[in-house]
């Protein structure tokens, strides 16, 4: 998914570079794929669940940087390798050669940022998306909800919340997802993953649903 360009000062922290060219870098978050990345990967995976943001949630991202600059800009992130690879190939086929004709790096940065913002604006226009500060983050949360729980895209996410529940002596920090027909909880703690969901009965009120879900988690 293309995102409004945002500057990143530490491009290498907690990320592994998989592809690079003079202007763009494709990175994978430590702890995702290829065996999980050992202890560092487990710690990063736990951190990603506890400290959520659209950029941290996505295991893949693309950065832009001019050769003489110390500042990186995140321009895309994705929940799957297929999604981020499609963005990478688009950049290589449509932008990389064009950038070589610019003489001023500020002009290159302005061009790249404007191009990405134009793609986002066109997508929002074609899909009747309301542009606001929460759009990217909510879209990313929706993508993760569909992927974690195997839900179809027709199962629309209503809202999501940071929360935890106690199991034994250890609190399970994670995220509660409320969709049209389901209440779901996901947690990840030092390599131990949990994904649980409950079908919402339209005849039940909120208190009944929460009580049922809590009883379900305690029984696990």
UniProtKB/TrEMBL annotation:
<feature type="domain" description="GRAM">
    <location>
        <begin position="143"/>
        <end position="213"/>
    </location>
</feature>
<dbReference type="InterPro" id="IPR011993">
    <property type="entry name" value="PH-like_dom_sf"/>
</dbReference>
<dbReference type="Pfam" id="PF02893">
    <property type="entry name" value="GRAM"/>
</dbReference>
<dbReference type="InterPro" id="IPR004182">
    <property type="entry name" value="GRAM"/>
</dbReference>
<protein>
    <submittedName>
        <fullName>TBC1 domain member 9</fullName>
    </submittedName>
</protein>
């Amino acid at each position: 998914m293309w995102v409004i360009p945002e500057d990143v000062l530490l491009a290498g922290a907690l990320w592994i570079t998989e592809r690079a060219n003079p202007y763009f870098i494709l990175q994978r978050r430590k702890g995702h794929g290829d065996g999980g990345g050992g202890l560092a990967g487990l710690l990063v995976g736990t951190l990603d669940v506890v400290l959520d943001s659209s950029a941290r949630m996505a295991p893949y991202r693309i950065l832009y940087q001019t050769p003489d600059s110390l500042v990186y800009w995140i321009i895309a992130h994705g929940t799957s390798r297929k999604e981020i690879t499609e963005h990478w190939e688009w950049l290589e086929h449509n932008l990389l050669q064009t950038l070589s004709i610019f003489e001023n790096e500020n002009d290159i940065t302005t061009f790249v940022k404007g191009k990405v913002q134009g793609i986002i604006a066109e997508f929002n226009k074609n899909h009747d998306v309301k542009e606001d500060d929460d759009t990217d983050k909510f879209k990313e949360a929706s993508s993760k909800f569909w992927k974690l729980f195997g839900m179809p895209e027709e199962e629309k996410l209503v809202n999501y919340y940071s929360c935890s529940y106690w199991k034994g002596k250890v609190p399970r920090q994670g995220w509660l997802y409320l969709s049209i027909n389901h209440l779901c909880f996901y947690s990840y703690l030092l390599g131990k993953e949990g994904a649980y969901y409950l079908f919402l009965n339209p005849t039940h009120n909120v208190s009944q649903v929460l009580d049922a879900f809590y009883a379900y988690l305690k029984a696990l």
